[in-house]
């Protein structure tokens, strides 16, 4: 048997897995190799951006192979990835607001809510698909708490205190969470049997998740990167 | 046959192996890539933190695959990992106390007792499971000697002499050893046949060990990292 699989040219889901995998690898190389150009204060944030895409790159390798082998959603690996990368995105919010006094309490609150969001989402998607609506609802509540915290809660206040480029970047990241992250619950609904699978076919959930991941992981990291570049000049 | 395994979505033990594996990889990347920001005095400590998580990352790869293939505790690899990482954690205690005159004798004493703890623990867990209580008891004695040494013995005295951030970090590390390490003997008891396996099912020992490893290896490393960051500023 050969090492490399023969792919169907119309396997668009597989195509996005391959593109996603390499995009994450390239983004990691970009973030890691640019580290030395920043001063210490910003290096940690850019390093964490790199960790997020690096973790994703590894899981995209698994997911890509899983998809090519079984033509099935690699939900397990998807959530292993998210359980690590979403908390790290909370760390990014914390890191850029640390200069104006963000507390560990804020960080832990965001991490805990993001874990609630993911664990309940996993239950609805993989363990109790019959109760997808219920689990999705609980997950959504936790998601909205995070949205609230950064748009209107204490994270917002800290960003306003900081002002300038930090405030601007915080705002962009807030939009990522409100719009970019909202693709995931859409994907979840597309993937729930009997909701829309008849219209779009299975696999559409993966296309949605793959696009969302590229936007959120790489885009999010680039916002941090741009902030670091700007602060360097000032 | 395919390279990638099909995982049962309710295989939570497997889930913690996958998360653990990637968390250790990411932590290693974090410690290694942050090295250049520290001055020489602190670089060795952070480097050792990275070695601990890196060694763990490799063994988590083995353990993960072992678990997916056999649905059995990878006790062999577990102890191969510990036999390397636990002595390195003793080295961390030594390194931060070296500035105030920690001796190699202290280091060797801690290493030897940690090896006694692990070798006897391995006998009880893998070689003579019928005498799990006896071997666990001897292992526990060695464990308590280490606890004594850092909480009340000569390591404690050195930390007090050092004072300041070093004392504070030493104290946090002491708590890791007293509380975080205590999860391992709990896991040992959960895994011993006929003690609690009937209640929790096998595999629970691995969940306990995986959580403990994440706390102790990554958390421990982050304490050292934070100490290095603080000393940098001062
Ligand atoms: C609200 C909601 C969900 C939200 C998921 C999100 C918001 C995931 C974000 C992932 C990110 C940002 C990964 C990139 O690094 C689920 C779990 C699909 C379940 C349905 C309800
Ligand atoms: C006391 C005791 C044990 C203690 C194990 C410990 C304390 C392991 C620590 C491992 C670490 C810290 C690894 C992380 O790097 C055993 C061997 C389970 C056997 C039962 C009695």
Q: Low-confidence segments of chain A, ≥5 residues, pLDDT <50?
A: none
Q: In angstroms, what separates the terminal alpha carbons of chain A?
A: 57 Å
Using the 3D structure, state the CATH architecture of chain A. Answer: Up-down Bundle
Measured as a percent range, the helix fraction of chain A is over 70%
Number of strands of chain A: 0
| Cα Rg of chain A | 18 Å
Q: CATH-wise, what's the superfamily of chain A?
A: Rhodopsin 7-helix transmembrane proteins
Largest interface: A-B, 31 and 21 residues
Shape of chain A: globular
Describe this protein's structure.
2 copies of one chain form a homodimer. In chain A, helix 2 (40-70) packs antiparallel against helix 3 (75-98). Chain A is globular, with a radius of gyration of 18 Å. Chain A is built from 10 helices and no strands. The model of chain A has no long low-confidence stretch (mean pLDDT 92). Chain A has 234 residues and is mostly helical. Chain A has a single domain (12-233), classed as Rhodopsin 7-helix transmembrane proteins (Rhopdopsin 7-helix transmembrane proteins, Up-down Bundle), CATH 1.20.1070.10. The A-B interface holds A 32, 35-36, 40, 43-44, 47-48, 50-51, 54-55, 58-59, 62, 65-66, 69-70, 75-77, 79-81, 83-84, 88, 122, 126-127 and B 2-4, 6-7, 9-10, 15, 18-19, 22-23, 25-26, 29-30, 33-34, 36-37, 232. Residues 82, 85-86, 89, 117-118, 121, 136, 139-140, 143, 181, 184-185, 188, 213, 216-217 of chain A line the site of one retinal.
